[in-house]
Design goal:
The longest helix is centred in the first third of the chain and has 32 residues, at about 1-35. By secondary structure, the protein is mainly alpha-helical. It has helices at about 1-35, 40-45, 60-70, 75-100, 105-130, 140-160, 160-184. The chain is built from seven helices and no strands.
Length: about 180
C-alpha cells in the first residue's frame, strides 16, 4: 500500500514537472519569435464582426445606405454614439482588408470614414453629457474601442505606407479621446 502511494506521488510530481517545463519552453520559444507588438487577429478581437464588402465592391454603396438607415432608427445620443463606434470598427476592419490586398488608396478613404464615425461618436457623447452628465457609450462599444486600439497598433507596425501610418495614428488619437471621454 505504501509503495503504491509513493509511486503515485512520484508519478504526479514527474507529470507536473513535465507539464510546467513544457509550458516554460514554449513560452521562451514564443518570446524569441514575437515581434515588438503582439500579433493581432481582428477576427478574434471583433467576432462576429468582419469587414464584409469594401469600397471596391459594386454594392458597397447599398451597404452604406443600409447602415445610414439603421442609424436613423436608433434613438438616444449615447446609443447613436455606440452605433458610430460600431461603424468606426467596421471601417477599420475594411481598411485592414484593403491594406492586406495592397489597395492603399481605398484603405485611406476607408480610414477617413472611420475617423469621421469616431469623431461623430465623440460629438454625440459630448452633446448627451450636457443633458445627462453620466451619459456614455455602452460597455460593448467601449470594449470594441480597446480592441480597436490594439488592432491599430498592430497595423501600424505592419504598414509600410507613410500615409496609411499617419491616418492610423490619427484614428488611434480619436479612439483614445473617446476612451478618455467615456471614463470621466
Amino acid at each position: 500500500m505504501v509503495k503504491r502511494v509513493v509511486f503515485l506521488v512520484i508519478f504526479l510530481i514527474f507529470g507536473f514537472l513535465i507539464m510546467v517545463g513544457g509550458d516554460v519552453l514554449a513560452q521562451e520559444k514564443e518570446m524569441a519569435v514575437s515581434p515588438s507588438v503582439e500579433e493581432v487577429d481582428s477576427f478574434e478581437l471583433f467576432w462576429p464582426m468582419v469587414a464584409g464588402k469594401t469600397r471596391e465592391s459594386g454594392i458597397y454603396r447599398i451597404k452604406k445606405l443600409k447602415e445610414e438607415v439603421r442609424g436613423w432608427l436608433i434613438f438616444g445620443k449615447p446609443q447613436k454614439a455606440s452605433y458610430k463606434v460600431f461603424l468606426g470598427v467596421k471601417r477599420v476592419l475594411e481598411a485592414e482588408k484593403l491594406i492586406k490586398e495592397g489597395k492603399t488608396d481605398l484603405a485611406l478613404e476607408t480610414l477617413r470614414d472611420a475617423q469621421i464615425d469616431l469623431r461623430s461618436s465623440m460629438n454625440l457623447i459630448e452633446t448627451a453629457r450636457k443633458v445627462e452628465p453620466g451619459a456614455s457609450i455602452d460597455p460593448q462599444a467601449y470594449s470594441r474601442l480597446v480592441n480597436l486600439e490594439k488592432l491599430i497598433d498592430w497595423l501600424n507596425e505592419q504598414e509600410n505606407s507613410e500615409n496609411v501610418a499617419l491616418l492610423l495614428s490619427e484614428v488611434k488619437t480619436r479612439i483614445q479621446d473617446l476612451l478618455m471621454a467615456t471614463t470621466r
